[in-house]
């Protein structure tokens, strides 16, 4: 009996310790840089090359979503946006245009790191953010890669409001373990074993009070994408652009609101970008760069050549 109680006590101590340390699996690989007195950005950086591939994650993600995309013989950087991972847990002002704010952060990071010949890569919300950033015409950004970007698909006012009403911080914070796993699985055609780290990190976050702003950021991210449409701005993108979607994306288009649309139809909207190549990757879901990393990296390498 004493042995049994001891095992329970050890387990409880481990859970409490884990919750207090709040160490996500990829933190040991991360660096940080201070952009100003109130904002620090976490990032992972590897390799050298003539160009810098700067990768921006999507809604609810983090830099570990790019763990398989640090391409050989290239200078690659993946960042955590504010209120994600080790980046500053930011107190967003009520009237903040979130995508404009994220664009400010990306450009400040480029300037602080003195990056040149930047290939800006964005996934999902990060793709929509990358478009907003490129439209600022920063001279360092030479190319754009959009991986399953948000923003091509548009929503009516009523549809947008329904999504905003659903996306509350507590909605994401109170997800059960089962729901977290189901939600993540919807990002894949076939979920790879390496995605278990993503699940473990996501399950840890609600245990850590220091991560509460993360759930606010996710909710604000949904509103931010809907309140900053970019579809009509696509023809103003003046850098060579690669648009990549997974053929089996279960999140774009929205399967509940736009049942008649296909992922290919959404991808083809990228043809409005003047200098664009559009590619569909088979057997890939929304997190295509994670699920089909080799093919995704090959597409990037070919595009850069």
Which properties best describe this structure?
Carboxylesterase_BioH, Rossmann fold, 305 residues, 11 helices, disordered N terminus, Alpha/beta hydrolase fold containing protein, hydrolase, AB_hydrolase_1, signal
Describe the structure.
It comes from Emticicia oligotrophica (strain DSM 17448 / CIP 109782 / MTCC 6937 / GPTSA100-15). Keywords: Hydrolase, Signal. The chain is an alpha/beta fold and 305 residues long. It has a single domain, classed as Alpha/Beta hydrolase fold, catalytic domain (Rossmann fold), CATH 3.40.50. Helices cover 38% and strands 16% of the residues. The chain contains eleven helices and eight strands. An eight-stranded mixed sheet has the order 1-2-4-3-5-6-7-8. α6 crosses α7. The longest helix is centred in the N-terminal third of the chain and has 20 residues.
Care to give the gist of this entry?
Helices cover 38% and strands 16% of the residues.
């Amino acid at each position: 009996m004493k042995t049994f109680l001891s095992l329970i006590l050890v387990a409880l101590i481990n859970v409490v310790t884990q919750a207090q340390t709040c160490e996500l699996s990829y933190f040991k690989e991360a660096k940080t840089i201070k952009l100003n007195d109130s904002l620090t950005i976490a990032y992972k950086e590897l390799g050298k090359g003539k160009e810098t591939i700067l990768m921006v994650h999507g809604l609810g993600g983090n830099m570990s979503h790019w763990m398989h995309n640090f391409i050989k013989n290239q200078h690659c950087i993946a960042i955590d946006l504010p209120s994600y991972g080790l980046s500053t847990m930011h107190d967003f002002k009520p009237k903040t245009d979130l995508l404009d704010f994220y664009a400010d952060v990306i450009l400040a990071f480029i300037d602080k790191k003195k990056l040149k010949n930047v290939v800006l890569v964005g996934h999902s919300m990060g793709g929509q953010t990358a478009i907003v950033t490129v439209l600022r015409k920063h001279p360092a950004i030479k190319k754009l890669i959009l991986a399953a970007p948000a923003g091509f698909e548009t929503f009516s006012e009523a549809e947008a409001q329904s999504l905003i009403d659903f996306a509350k911080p507590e909605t994401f914070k109170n997800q059960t373990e089962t729901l977290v796993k189901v939600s993540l699985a919807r990002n894949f055609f076939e979920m790879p074993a390496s995605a278990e780290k993503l699940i473990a990190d996501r399950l840890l976050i609600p245990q850590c009070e220091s991560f509460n702003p993360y759930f606010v950021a996710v909710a604000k991210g949904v509103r931010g994408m809907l309140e900053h449409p970019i579809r009509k701005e696509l023809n103003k993108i003046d850098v060579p652009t690669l648009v990549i979607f997974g053929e089996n994306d279960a999140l774009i288009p929205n399967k509940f609101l736009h049942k008649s649309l296909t992922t290919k139809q959404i991808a083809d909207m990228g043809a409005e970008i003047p200098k664009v190549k559009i590619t569909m990757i088979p057997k890939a879901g929304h997190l295509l760069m994670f699920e089909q990393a080799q093919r995704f990296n090959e597409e990037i390498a070919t595009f850069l050549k």
